[in-house]
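hey can u check if this looks right to u? its 265 residues, i copy pasted from the old doc so theres a chance i mangled smth
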Amino acid sequence: MTRLRTCFLMTLLGITVSLKAGDDFCGIRNTAFSAGESVTFSVYYTFAGVYVWGGDAVFSVGLEEMNGHSVYHAVGDGKTNSFFDGIFKVRDRYESYIDTGSLKPLKFIRNVDEGGYKVYENVSFNQTANTATTTKGLFKTPPCIQDVLSSIYYARNIDFDAYKPGDKIPFYMFLDSQTYNLYLRYMGKDIVNTRYGKFHAIKFKPLLIAGTMFKGGEGMTVWVSDDRNHLPLRIESPISVGSVKVDMTKYRSLRYRLSSLISVR
């Protein structure tokens, strides 16, 4: 069950590889989501052609004050269902404190328990000095660095209409005391059928880090709603045995009407 441990909540966080690093996209204002939003995703694994529900993850965002900054407090909670608990219990929690003016993270916390394998990571970002401080020390980072959770909310503010199918959108992400230089390949507009319903969608393929939850490369495909919310709708990817699929199944307090929805299942 090692693959389950490394794929469960990080599968959902695969949507993070979707922001542009560069001065023209550094420190943007949020126009895509509001404090109070909550979105639920269900994770399904396929074995021998049969999809099995593995559990759910909930992503929510609130509004707080931290060190004189107004911040979005984003939380991602993932857990296996009762059936998988008996095989390999997962309880993952990711938190990011994101400056409301620039959408840059100020603090990131990862607290995971996956089959008894526990990891706790606490990162403080200095976005002026371009550093990240962890329990392992002080690390230099590039400008516009994001953590694995903050980048979801940052990425939802991308103007995809500024790109052509096939374009790469590079970005920097800090995780496990390392900076990763990755990219997203924009694939254009699409229609996607999910367990929630049928949507007009924006499609892209993130470059994944070899040796983490999947093989390196562009095997993962992500769809987000083709409206002002840019709400994640579906993630699909092959894994070492079978494949994994993640669908948005519930939402609350979106900033705009989900106008990309064509029909409900």
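Residues 1-24 have pLDDT under 50 and may be disordered.
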